[in-house]
Amino acid sequence: MMWLTWRQFRAHALVAGVTLALLAAYLVWLGLRIRHSYEINVECGVGCSVETARGILERSYSTSLQVAGLMVILAPALIGAFWGAPLIAREFETGTHRFIWSQSITRTRWLAVKLLFTTLVGVAVTGALSVMLTWAASPYDALIDQRFQPLFFPTRNVAPLGYAAFAVVAGTAIGLLARRTVLAMAITLAAFALLQIVVPTVIRPHLQPVVTESVTLDPTASFDALGVGPQGVHIHGYSLPGAWVLSEDGLLRDGAGNPLTQQQVEQCQRGNPAEDLACLAELGAHFEVSYQPADRYWTFQWLEFGGYLVLAGALAGFTFWRIRRTG
After folding, report:
1. How far apart are CA 253 and CA 64, in angstroms?
2. Which pLDDT tens digit goes with each residue over 108-145?
3. Considering the chain, what percentage of its residues have pLDDT values greater than 90?
4. Are the C-beta atoms of residues 249 and 235 closer than 8 Å to each other?
5. By the 8 A CB rule, do 252 and 259 touch?
6. CA 46, 147, 299, 78: dihedral to nearest 10 degrees?
7. What is the structure's pLDDT at 229?
8. I need a labelling partner for 138 at 20 to 30 A (CA). Which of 150, 222, 267, 281 fits?
C-alpha cells in the first residue's frame, strides 16, 4: 500500500523537491545578504546608530522578506489544494474508487495510509520553508522586532506546520464531499484564505487575555502622529518594542482625566519634538493602550499550531466516518 501511494505521489514529490531547492537557494542568498548588512550597520563598533541600522535594514529587506513570507503562507494552501483535494475526489471522478474499495484493503486503511503520507510530506515541506525563512530573517527580526506583524507571525517557527496539516486534511475532506477535483481545489483555497483572514483579525488577538494600561506621553513614547478629532486629540500609530499593540490610536487625557484640547497641544508645540513631548508630559498627558506583550510570542505560536492540529484532527475524524458510509 505504501509503495502504491509513493508511485502515485512521486510526480508531486519531484515538483515539490525542485521548488523547495529553488526557494532554499533564494533564502540562503537572502539570509547571507541580511547578515552582511547587519554586520556592516550594527556590529561596526563605536559610532554605529541602531536607529539608522534599523532603518537601513527595513528599507532594504522588508519587501523581500514579505515576498518570501507570502511564499511560506501559500505553500500550505497549494499543498492542500493540489495534494489533499484530489486525494479522494480524483478517485470519484475516474470511478476507480469502486475497484480500490473492493480489494482486501479496507477503505479506512487505504485512506489512513494516503492521508498520513501526504500530510507528513506536506508538513515537512512547509516546515523546511519555515525553518529556512526563520534563519534567513533572524538578524532582521532581532533588530526590527515585529514578530507579531501579520506577514511575519504566520511564516516563522511552528505555526506554518499546523497550517500545512490542516490544509491537507481539509482538502481531503472537501474532496470527499465535492467529488470533483477542480471544485474541491477551489473550495480548499477559498477556505484556507478565509481562515488566514479571520484567525489573525478575530481569533488570534484573544488567544490570551489582552493587557490594557495607561501610558504617559513622554519623550520615550514611540508613535506616528497626533491628530485632532471630534472627541479631542488622539495619538496614532503607538508601538511597543516586540509587542502586538491592538489599539494603536488613543485619546489623550490630562492629569485630571479630561480630554486634552487642541489649544493645549498647540501651546506645547515649540518646534523641538523632545521638548514638545516633555511639555505634554507636564500636563499629565496619557492614553489607554491594549496589547499582547512580547513575551507571549511563543505562547501564541504554540496555541495557533495546536488549534490548527485540533481542526485537522476533527476533519480527519469526520473524513474517516464519512468514507465508511460512502457508496
Report:
1. 40
2. 888 888 889 889 989 999 999 999 999 998 888 888 87
3. 29
4. yes
5. yes
6. -140
7. 65
8. 222
pLDDT in tens, 53-98: 777 888 888 888 888 989 899 999 999 988 888 888 887 777 665 5
Q: Are 126 and 164 spatial neighbours (Cβ–Cβ below 8 Å)?
A: yes
Q: Put the strands of the sheet holding 232-236 in their side by side order.
A: 225-229, 232-236, 250-251
2 pLDDT higher than 70: no
Measured between alpha carbons, how far is 243 from 296 in angstroms, rounded to an integer? Answer: 9
Which pLDDT value is given to residue 3? 46
Q: In angstroms, how far is CA 241 from the centroid of its own chain?
A: 19
Kindly report each contact of residues 205-208 with a partner whose C-beta sits within 8 Å and lies 24 or more positions away, as own/partner. Answer: 205/244, 205/246, 205/292, 207/299, 207/300, 207/303, 207/304, 208/292, 208/296, 208/299, 208/300, 208/303
Instruction: Name the grid cell of 285.
Output: 498627558
Residues in the chain, overall count: 327
How many Å apart are CA 101 and CA 110, to the nearest integer? 8
What predicted TM-score, i.e. pTM, was given to this entire model? 0.83
